[in-house]
Amino acid sequence: MTDASLFMRFSGVLLDTWRKGLDRFATHSAPKPPEETDPELLYVRARGLARAGDYDTASRLFVRAGELAPTMAEALEAQGEILDIEGKPEQAMSKYEAVRKLRSQIRDSAPDRPFVLRQRRRFTAEIAAYTSVLHSIRRHTLPHIARGNAYLAEGRPKEALNDYNDILRWKPNHPDVMALKGEALAMLGEHDKALQAFDVAVAGRSKNPDILSGRAISRLAVGRLDQADADWRRQLELLPAEHASARGCVALRLADYEKALPEWERALEKEPHDPYWQLYRLTALHRLDRSAGPIQIDTIDVWPQPLLALHAAKLTADEVLACADTPERRAEALFQIGVLALPSDPAEARKRFNEVVEKAPPSMIEYAAARHELARLGS
């Protein structure tokens, strides 16, 4: 097992060993003023105080962190733990229920991407723990990789890049770390530099589908469509047949609907209620001019249900766009509007696909699929 893969899943065993260091780091190193406005620093200090037995102060800091970052499930969970310790189980349960609700709304990123990039949550405690360890064992690869991965998963590529570059000073051109460096550079929009890193990584790990995925995205971002397609097709060859959802995502990036449809059928056998797999199956069926049958819509209040409603002709394009409350959701909506417009109004479809390419990040499935649709339209 490689250094990078060893810590892709943020080993809980090692974290338990290192949390004593986290307590010292939290109690003595984190900013102490109660008016601190950084929710992550508040959380770290509160955690250290709670472990030291100062539950009152810790609880106040956890509450403040939750006020500053309402989606920080960890702060709510910590409040629940303190309430449990204080013998208030009913109040604790209300916090735990809020945590469950928050986490149920978080969906991992596309399964054809590296594990570290599929995670969507905060890694405050992990980052603090690895930082504490690095105070003692600075020149050690694994904590740097683990902290870099945690930063990358949080969408903090600059900090991740610092950790990866530290490792590369000791282990030049390490293929797994070069791949991670490529992902960090791509997240920063520096795709030319990312490609240099990915090329080194692919040379050392030519059969790693995750690395090919990253290079394909950066190749597409700089306009090398044919080269990106070559990487994605190679990724498809390397992905096991049982990884249907990952294979479906790659096929959809290629806008290869003949390949995508059977993968989504298989993915839905395993996860019949997954709304995105349902949506992507409908996308493939529509582009192949095949009947989808009745489409069940239970609610339009939860994304991506409005997109399913669009396919079922229960919402208009404008109504769906009004539901798209983030840039990513807007890109998803624009792509589906383009797909549905394509048979009868190619000009409208072209307009929508162009909007996706102009506004979406290259890492999105819809960005790649829109680029392929535009190429077919001669744009």
From TrEMBL:
PROSITE patterns: TPR (PS50005). Keywords: Repeat, TPR repeat. InterPro entries: TPR-like_helical_dom_sf (IPR011990), TPR_rpt (IPR019734), Ycf3 (IPR050498). SMART domains: TPR (SM00028). It comes from the Bacteria. TPR repeats lie at residues 141-174, 241-274. The keyword Transmembrane helix does not apply. The keyword Iron does not apply. This is Tetratricopeptide repeat-containing protein. It comes from Enhydrobacter aerosaccus.
